[in-house]
């Protein structure tokens, strides 16, 4: 996998909004724990689908275009809305049949670091495969990619744009998902107060948040799964929720620990992304914390990392204050002018 360093001018060329992954500092933080949480300076793009500004711009148009749904009334942002942390503020998203889906829409955030496992159950091995799933799923956008090709080829500007971005390829199922995946890889959480603290600004977060960070990595054991700058191990765990959805277990029926297991979500921009859990069953961060304090339902599949915690209400409040420091300012995402 090749890593591409983004210049602001390149980002601006790809989309109307601009973001930076992290500012530069002359002195690096010597504390090993803080270093483990420092934001990367580059976005990784796979060699088989390298970044270009034009491809990202095309992918953004497709992401917001309702013509990629059967009834032409939905787009990717219907379930993954930038105004709500790239999710939607309901328990589960609503699909093409105007019915709630079985799971909450996972955030389309920092997916460039997805580690070859996408969706709550990890059934997609690449972002390209992930982009294909919701478009074709009957209960979601309900449009076979073969039909999407016909629709897009009938739009003169799209036909021209695809030929420019994919010379000799044009509009195909493969190029559609490659463009969308490229845009999705540019969706990166904004620089948060926590990042400023990691980079040396001791006043960037409160004393409560600092205590919460220590607890997060210590007595609360949160860092056992929510690791690194993106706060996820990209693995699957049964955390003891009251659900009949076996999650990863459908893909690994003979693995007891895969039953009721779901992918660890990022905690980046978590304050913008209520409700929580794979099924949207917990409305607040307080409810999330008290679920973990209780240890969840004890069963053979429950993760060995899930154990009841001895935390005071004050300590829980500190951890929540820390998690809130992971949310930066909302990014302004300008809607693209769609081809016609």
Automatic annotation (TrEMBL):
Question: What compartments host this protein?
Answer: Periplasm
Q: What is its main location?
A: periplasm
Which Gene3D superfamilies does the UniProt record give? Cytochrome c-like domain
Where does the signal peptide begin and end? 1-28
Keyword list (alphabetical) reads: Heme, Iron, Metal-binding, Oxidoreductase, Periplasm, Peroxidase, Signal
Domain Cytochrome c stretches: 54-166, 207-327
One function term, GO molecular function aspect: peroxidase activity
Any Pfam family matching the protein: CCP_MauG
Q: What name appears for this protein in its UniProt entry? A: Cytochrome-c peroxidase
Q: Which organism is it from?
A: Microvirga arabica
């Amino acid at each position: 996998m090749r890593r591409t360093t983004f210049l602001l001018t390149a980002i601006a060329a790809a989309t109307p909004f601009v973001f930076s992954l992290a500012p530069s500092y002359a002195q690096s933080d010597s504390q090993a724990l803080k270093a483990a949480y420092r934001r990367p300076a580059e976005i990784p793009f796979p060699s088989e689908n390298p970044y270009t500004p034009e491809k990202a711009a095309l992918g953004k148009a497709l992401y917001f275009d309702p013509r990629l749904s059967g009834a032409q009334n939905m787009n990717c942002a219907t379930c993954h809305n930038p105004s709500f942390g790239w999710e939607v503020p309901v328990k589960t998203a609503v699909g093409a049949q105007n019915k709630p889906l079985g799971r909450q829409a996972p955030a389309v955030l920092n997916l460039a670091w997805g580690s070859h496992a996408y969706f709550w159950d990890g059934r997609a091995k690449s972002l390209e495969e992930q982009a294909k799933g919701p478009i074709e799923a009957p209960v979601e956008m309900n449009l076979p990619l073969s039909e999407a090709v016909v629709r897009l080829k009938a739009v003169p500007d799209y036909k021209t744009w695809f030929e420019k971005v994919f010379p000799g390829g044009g509009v195909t199922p493969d190029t559609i998902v490659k463009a969308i995946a490229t845009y999705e890889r540019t969706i990166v959480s904004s620089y948060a107060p926590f990042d400023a603290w990691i980079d040396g600004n001791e006043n960037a977060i409160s004393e409560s948040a600092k205590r919460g960070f220590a607890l997060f990595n210590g007595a609360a054991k949160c860092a056992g799964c929510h690791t690194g700058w993106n706060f996820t191990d990209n693995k699957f765990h049964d955390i003891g929720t009251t659900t009949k959805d076996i999650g990863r277990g459908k893909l690994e029926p003979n693995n007891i620990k895969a039953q009721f297991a779901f992918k660890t979500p990022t905690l980046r921009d978590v304050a913008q992304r209520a409700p929580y859990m794979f099924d949207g069953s917990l409305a607040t961060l307080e409810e999330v914390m008290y679920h973990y304090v209780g240890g969840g339902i004890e069963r053979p599949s429950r993760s060995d990392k899930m154990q009841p915690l001895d935390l005071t209400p004050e300590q829980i409040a500190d951890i929540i204050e820390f998690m809130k420091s992971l949310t930066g300012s909302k990014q302004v995402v300008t809607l693209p002018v769609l081809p016609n």
